[in-house]
Amino acid sequence: MSPRSARLARLSRSVTFSACHRLHSKSLSDQENLKLFGKCNNPNGHGHNYKGRRWLPISCVLPLQIDPVSGMVMNLTDLKEYMQKAIMEPLDHKNLDEDVPYFSEVVSTTENVAVFIWDNLQRLLPQGMLHKVEVHETEQNVVVYKGEERTVK
């Protein structure tokens, strides 16, 4: 390996947060909500221990190179602080529907939790660094969000 070779790496860090929510859309009637969301529409809500993982990319427009001096893609202490601000502070031990303003108008599905985390991390991380957010609602239910958007017609 030449000392001038650029090596690329993917960095991942996981956090776990606990939160409760109720799946309920203001656009639907109570009966429609119950039919769509079942027991997750319980008026008193229900809880999860969400496991969140966010990734820094192997490559994107600007590939993330392992710094030849530090040997790191990013300082893990910085990453931990970003995740604390973007995920733990706004979400941990909260009622998503009552305590997090974003979810007052957005149904608190795991998909929308992933979008919320993505948006928060995007504001903190250097441009182009975030590759994906992965949120595990349960062992069986996982959402991966990569910032994709589609124009609604």
UniProtKB/TrEMBL annotation:
GO terms for cellular component: mitochondrion. Its cofactor is Zn(2+). One of its GO terms (biological process) is tetrahydrobiopterin biosynthetic process. Gene3D superfamilies: 6-pyruvoyl tetrahydropterin synthase/QueD (3.30.479.10). Pathway: Cofactor biosynthesis; tetrahydrobiopterin biosynthesis; tetrahydrobiopterin from 7,8-dihydroneopterin triphosphate: step 1/3. Its EC number is 4.2.3.12. One of its GO terms (molecular function) is 6-pyruvoyltetrahydropterin synthase activity. Keywords: Lyase, Metal-binding, Tetrahydrobiopterin biosynthesis, Zinc. Involved in the biosynthesis of tetrahydrobiopterin, an essential cofactor of aromatic amino acid hydroxylases. Catalyzes the transformation of 7,8-dihydroneopterin triphosphate into 6-pyruvoyl tetrahydropterin. Belongs to the PTPS family. This is 6-pyruvoyl tetrahydrobiopterin synthase. It comes from Sylvia atricapilla. The lineage of its organism: Eukaryota, Metazoa, Chordata, Craniata, Vertebrata.
